[in-house]
Each structure stands twice: as structure tokens, then as C-alpha cells.
Design goal:
The structure holds three protein chains of three kinds.
Chain A lengths: L24 H15 L5 H13 L2 H13 L1 H9 L1 H7 L9 E6 L4 E6 L8 H4 L4 H4 L1 H9 L1 H7 L9 E6 L4 E6 L11 H5 L4 H5 L13
Parallel strand pairs in A: 1-4, 2-3
Helix pairs in contact in A: 3-4, 4-5, 8-9
Chain B lengths: L7 E4 L18 E11 L2 H4 L9 E9 H4 L10 E7 L3 E3 L2
Antiparallel strand pairs in B: 1-2, 1-5, 2-3, 3-4
Chain C lengths: L25 H15 L5 H9 L3 H6 L2 H15 L7 H6 L2
Helix pairs in contact in C: 1-4, 2-4
The chains are: A alpha/beta, B mainly beta, C mainly alpha.
Chain lengths: 216, 93, 95
């Protein structure tokens, strides 16, 4: 059972080693758990494969498309802010299993940042799996108590008078930050705009930057 | 749904043994209902093999950071938001 | 107010945030997918996953990696539900 079927050894009858190269011992235990649960009929092998395919295909490109569309289409932006889940479905994007997704709009006076202090809740259908730091104890601890310190650590410079709003994702709602369209990006097309939107800007620890024009 | 947007509420300061989704740092803190979400299965029972029904109302509550932390190192006016279940909220002045 | 091992908001720490990127290993993708499939099949839900993680002793919680916590939780919860017999997984690994 492996995410990379081209490299599988399911026909091997040899005893699987407890370590495999530089994987931790946990890797073998997880594989054995998977095999055991499939054999006992608790889960289906094909169901696991489909979930693997789903997970590895998730990326911030989907979230970026939502943001870019909201930058060029004000009515879409309103729909996004009212119900991000439905807005994602409008663009044929998978909003994920959470029944409610909320988009948080950054403006010239407000900057949002998202954290899950209790675990790692994250809109992974639209952003891909969360980075390790998002799930880490230091981020979970400091994002709520010292968000400006955390933003400084991430290299974010906020203008004077900008209010920082931290959102602690404690329950079933998933939150996605809609960063501000950068200055200097006025002539870019939607696809080019989407390329400026990073995963970190949709968590709230980065700000999109327009490409500097190439000198003639 | 017992509370409405703009209403002042306080997060209950009670102990709870076992799984629950109200963070310690918010217990006892005063905030304002920002948004009324829908109802969701109660994680406190759903985590123990029960069905989590009846679904419980969930609210997005807004807090002034200066109300949450004794010495907040940011700027007055900064805010914090968290989703809190109705049975963890009380009316407040 | 005493807090559980996972309840970290405002927990005093000066630790810097380690921002190194790490692509999920195959076994981590598999762990995530096993949990997702258990959820989809109605065997174990996300609240149970969280409860299992929160039951880890503090020292183990702090040293385990993210998906090692998931593994701990799944083994604990499935044993509690009688889906996995005590020692069944160890026997399979020959440990």
C-alpha cells in the first residue's frame, strides 16, 4: 500500500524490514496498520487509495484562484465573503468536507491571521496540507498572544493604523484569508494575479507582492 | 439560537475533564458575538462514541486582545476571534 | 486554569517558529488517508481522533511528530472500540 504505485512491491513475499532507508520505525507501523484494517474489512483498499490521490492533489493553487477571481470580480468577491464554500463550487473547486468555509478579507485597515491553537484545523482542500510550522506548538501558542511578533518573524510589515485580527479555528468552520491585491498589479490578468497569491498569504503570515517590472 | 450579533457574552470559566473545544486562554473572558454560525454536533459527546446530537449552536465571538491578555504586546484595537459553542457562553454586561 | 496537553494558546514560550518546509512522506500521506477513510466509513470520527491525541502523556505529545500523534490516537481509539485487539498490531510487526 503506497502512494507511488509504480514502485510497489506487493508481490514480495519477503519479510518487510522494520526500517526502510531513512524512514522512521513509525512508517512500518502505519503500513502494517493499514494492511491489517483492510484485511479485517474495516476500511477498503480502494477507498484509501482514493483518499491518497485526493490528498496529494490538494494545493494552494485552488485557494489562489478564489482570491484572484475576487480581485477582478467585485460581485464574486461579495459572494465569496458571504459563503466561501459555495463560491469555491462556482469555480469547480473542491471546498472540502467542512460544511462552512469563511473567507476573511484583508483591507487597508485590517489584517487577518489564522491559527488552530488546539490542533491543526486548516482548509486543506483549498490550500493543500498545512505546513509543519502551522501545526507547531510555538505558532499555536504565540499567534494568539503575540500576533505582531509572529508577523515580524515572518517578515510581514504592516502599515500604521492596521488592526491585526487573529482567528482561532476552534470548531467546524474553516477560515481562509483573502489578501489584498498588491499595488503595481493593476494590469495583470486573472491567471497572473493567481500566481502572486501564496499559501502563506492565505493563512495570513505573508502579503502578496507584484513582480517588479523588468528594466527595458 | 440564544445570542445575537453584537451581544456581549462571557466565556464560562468552568473546568471540563475530557475533550472540549473551548481554549483555556478564553475561559472567563468577555467578548461580543460577531456572527451566528449554524449548529454542529457536540464534540464533547461525539468524541466518546456518541452521536453528538442534538447539534449545538456555534458562534464566532470577537475579543479585544487587551481584554484577553494581561500584557498584550501588540496595539490597542487588535482583536481575536474564536468559534465558541452556545453552552460555553453566558450573558454579560 | 489548568489546561490539557494540546491546549496551547498563549502557553508561555520563547521558542522560535521553525519554518522549514517538509513534503509529507508516503507514510504520513497514508496515515492521513487511513484516518480519512475511517471517518468516511463511520468507524472513527475527527472528534475521537482529537480526543485520542489529547490523551497522550505530555512528554510523548511533545516529542512525537504530528502523524505519530495520529497513529497513537488511532491505535488507542480502535482498541477502545474493539476494532483492534490488544497486541494485534505488534504481533503483525513481529514485535
Amino acid at each position: 500500500m503506497s502512494p507511488h504505485d509504480h514502485d510497489h512491491h506487493e508481490d514480495d513475499h519477503g519479510h518487510e524490514p522494520l526500517t526502510n532507508g531513512d524512514e522512521p520505525v513509525t512508517a512500518a507501523r502505519v503500513r502494517a496498520l493499514g494492511e491489517l484494517l483492510v484485511e479485517k474489512g474495516v476500511i477498503g483498499r480502494e477507498d484509501v487509495r482514493q483518499r491518497i490521490d485526493w490528498l496529494v492533489s490538494r494545493s494552494p493553487v485552488d485557494g489562489a484562484r478564489l482570491v484572484a477571481r475576487s480581485w477582478v470580480d467585485p460581485e464574486f468577491k461579495q459572494r465569496l465573503l458571504e459563503d466561501a464554500r459555495s463560491a469555491a463550487l462556482e469555480l469547480d473547486l473542491d471546498p472540502g468536507p467542512s460544511p462552512v468555509v469563511v473567507a476573511l478579507e484583508n483591507t487597508e485597515s485590517v489584517h487577518h491571521m489564522v491559527v488552530c491553537t488546539l490542533c491543526s484545523c486548516y482548509p486543506k482542500a483549498l490550500l493543500g496540507p498545512p505546513p509543519d510550522w502551522y501545526k507547531s506548538v510555538p505558532y499555536r501558542s504565540r499567534a494568539v498572544a503575540d500576533p505582531r511578533g509572529v508577523l515580524a518573524e515572518f517578515g510581514v510589515q504592516l502599515e500604521d493604523g492596521v488592526e491585526v485580527r487573529v482567528v482561532d479555528s476552534t470548531a467546524d468552520i474553516r477560515y481562509l484569508v483573502i489578501p489584498r491585491r498588491p499595488a503595481g498589479a493593476e494590469t495583470l490578468q486573472e491567471e497572473e494575479l493567481a500566481a502572486l497569491v501564496t499559501r502563506d498569504s492565505m493563512i495570513g503570515v505573508a502579503i502578496p507582492v507584484a513582480p517588479t517590472p523588468v528594466a527595458a | 439560537m440564544r445570542y445575537g450579533p453584537g451581544q456581549t457574552v462571557r466565556v464560562a470559566a468552568r473546568r471540563h475533564e475530557g475533550h472540549h473545544r473551548t481554549p483555556a486562554y478564553l475561559k472567563g473572558k468577555r467578548g461580543t458575538v460577531e456572527r451566528v454560525h449554524a449548529r454542529f454536533r457536540n464534540p464533547e459527546t461525539h468524541a466518546y462514541g456518541l452521536d453528538g446530537l442534538p447539534e449545538q449552536p456555534l458562534y464566532l465571538v470577537r475579543f479585544e486582545q487587551e481584554d484577553v491578555w494581561g500584557e498584550y504586546p501588540g496595539i490597542a484595537g487588535d482583536r481575536l476571534y474564536a468559534d465558541v459553542f452556545e453552552h460555553w457562553l453566558e450573558e454579560a454586561e | 486554569m489548568e489546561r490539557a496537553v494540546h491546549d496551547r494558546g498563549g502557553w508561555q514560550t520563547d521558542a522560535a517558529i521553525d519554518r522549514r518546509e517538509h513534503e509529507l512522506a508516503d507514510w504520513e500521506v497514508l496515515m492521513d488517508s487511513i484516518v480519512g477513510t475511517l471517518g468516511q466509513s463511520g468507524v472513527m470520527n475527527v472528534d475521537e481522533l482529537r480526543r485520542g491525541i489529547e490523551s497522550m502523556p505530555r512528554a510523548e505529545y511533545e516529542t512525537a511528530s504530528y502523524y505519530e500523534r495520529w497513529l497513537y490516537s488511532v491505535e488507542t481509539i480502535l482498541a477502545e472500540k474493539g476494532v483492534l485487539a490488544s497486541g494485534e498490531l505488534d504481533a503483525r510487526l513481529g514485535t
